[in-house]
Amino acid sequence: MLSSKDLSFWTACASALQPAAQAYIDGRLQDAVDGRQFASICPHTGHTIAMVARCAQADVDLAVSAARRSFEGGDWSRCHPRERKPVLQKLAQLLRDNADELALLDCLDMGKPISDALNIDVPATAALFDWYAEACDKLYDEVAPSGPDALALVTREPVGVVAAVIPWNFPLDMAAWKVAPALAAGNSVLLKPAEQSPLSAIRLAQLASEAGLPDGVLNVLPGYGEEAGQALGLHPDIDCLSFTGSTEIGKRFLAYSAASNMKMVWLECGGKSPNLVFGDCADLDAAARKAAFGICFNQGQVCSASSRLLVENSIHDRFVEKVLTEMAHYQPGNPLDPATRLGSLVDAGHTGRVHGFIEDGVRQGARLLAGGERLRLGDSDCYLQPTLFTGVTPQMRIAREEIFGPVLSVLRFDSEAEAIAMANDSIYGLAAAVWTDQLQRAHRVARALRAGTVSVNTVDALDPGVPFGGCKQSGFGRDLSLHALDKFSQLKTTWISL
Ligand code: NAP
Ligand code: MG
C-alpha cells in the first residue's frame, strides 16, 4: 500500500492541501488581533504554503487569559488523572489517522524527506502522547518519614500556565516533547512554533480539541521570536517556560524571566556532539553507517547530530573511506519523493549560513574530502551536498561551533585520554557516542564524557522512556521520560499535626 504513495501522489496531496494557518486560542482558530500575517514558505519550491497569523503581544495576552481561565476552571487541571488518559490516547490515534497530512505539513514547511516525516516523526509523536497517557494514572505521591505526631505529604501539582517555544527541525516531535508531558501533568499550555514551521502545531491543537481536550488548555501562537516569543518570555502570568532552540536565544529566556516574574525556565539548546571511534571497535562498518546517519539525518539539522568525528589514528584513513562511502548514500533530492534520504535545508538563509561554515573550513586549512557544494534542484537552492572535512583541528570554527547542516568534521587522536579531552573541549554537552569493543573502556569513557546522553556502539539513541537533555551550554532540564514531568509540576508539602 505504501508503495502507491509515490512522488506524484505526494505532489498531488501538496497541491490540494489547504492548511489551517490561524492562531488557536481557547478552542478555536482565530486571526491575529491586529490582522497581520506572515508567509509560510516551502524551501523546496519557494512557494507560499499559507499566510499564517502573526501573533504578538495582544494575542499572547488573549491566549494567556484563556489558559489561565481553563487552568483555574479545573476541567483539566483538577480532573482525575484517569480522565486525562483517554483524551491523550485519542489524540495519539488521531495523529496516526491523519499521518499523511501531518507528514506533508512538516515536509513542505521545512524540507525534511516525506519518508522520514511519515515513518519517524509522526509515529514517534503519536507514541509519545500514548506514553504520557499511560503515565497519567500510574504516578504516586509521597509520604515523608516523620515522627509520631505528624504526617508529611509530598504531592505533585501542575505548575499552571506553561509556555513552550520550539525550533523548526522536528516541528511535530518538538511540540509533543513539550505538550505531552505538560498536559499529562495537568497544565494549560501555550505553544509557539518556529516561524519556518508553524503548520503542524496548529493542526495538532485542532486534533487535541477533537480528542476532547477542554478549550483553552492547548493554545498555539504562530509568529516571530522577537514578537510572540518575547511576549511569552516576559509575560507576568506564565508560570513555566520550556524552550528548545539555540543557546543564544535560550540565554535570552533566562533574561526575560529575570526581567519579569521569575517564571521557571527550562532550556534544551545547541550541541556539537563528539562521536569517538577507537581502533578496537570490531564493527567499523556499523560505525561508519551510523557516523553518516548521525550527520545526514534531517539534513544534519539535529541538535544532537554527531558533528565531530574523533577517530583513532591507527584506523583513521580506513575508517574515513568507509564513512565517505556511507555518506554518498545521502544525495540531496526532492523531499516529496519517498526515495529521498536528504531533503532541503529549512530555508535559503540557513543554507547560506551552513555553506559559509564550509567556506570557512576550507579557508582555515581543513581538507574537503566530499561535498561542499550548494545545489539548485528545480526552483530551490536550499540543498547542500553531504560534506566531510579531515585534518580538522580543535581550534577551527568547524570543530567548535554548531553548524546545523550535513557537515562532518573529522579529528584524530592517539590515546583515550586525548580523545576524552578533545571531546569535552566544547561549550556544549548534549550528546556523545563511543565505539569500542572493550567493556571497561566503554564505561570509562562514557563516565568521563560531559554529555546528557552517551551512546555506546550506536549514535543518538533515543526512547520516550529515557531522559534527553544537556549539560553546560546545551541547557538543563530533561525532556522525555517521567523526569520531564518534574519540569511541569511542583511539589507541595502538607504537614498535618496529629
Ligand atoms: P532559535 O533561533 O533559537 O529559535 C527557537 C525558537 O525561539 C523559535 O520559535 C524562535 O522563533 C524563537 N525565538 C527566536 N528569537 C527569539 C527571541 N528574541 N525571543 C523569543 N523567542 C525567540 O533556534 P532554531 O534556529 O529554530 O533551531 C535551531 C537550534 O535549536 C539549534 O541550535 C539546535 O541545536 C537547537 N535544538 C535543540 C534541541 C535540544 O533538544 N537540545 C532540539 C532541537 C533543536 P522564530 O522561529 O520566529 O525565530
Ligand atoms: Mg517554512
UniProtKB/TrEMBL annotation:
Taxonomic lineage: Bacteria, Pseudomonadati, Pseudomonadota, Betaproteobacteria, Neisseriales
Active site, renumbered: 268
EC number: 1.2.1.3
Keywords per UniProt: Oxidoreductase
Domain Aldehyde dehydrogenase, residue spans: 36-493
Coiled-coil region(s): none
Record field: transmembrane: none
SUPFAM superfamilies linked to this entry: ALDH-like
Name of the molecule in the record: Aldehyde dehydrogenase
Any one GO molecular-function label of the UniProt entry: aldehyde dehydrogenase (NAD+) activity
Species: Aquitalea magnusonii
Family that this chain belongs to: Belongs to the aldehyde dehydrogenase family.
InterPro entries found in the cross-reference section: Ald_DH/histidinol_DH, Ald_DH_C, Ald_DH_CS_GLU, Ald_DH_N, Aldehyde_DH_dom
Classification via PANTHER family: ALDEHYDE DEHYDROGENASE-RELATED (PTHR11699)
Keyword Membrane recorded: no
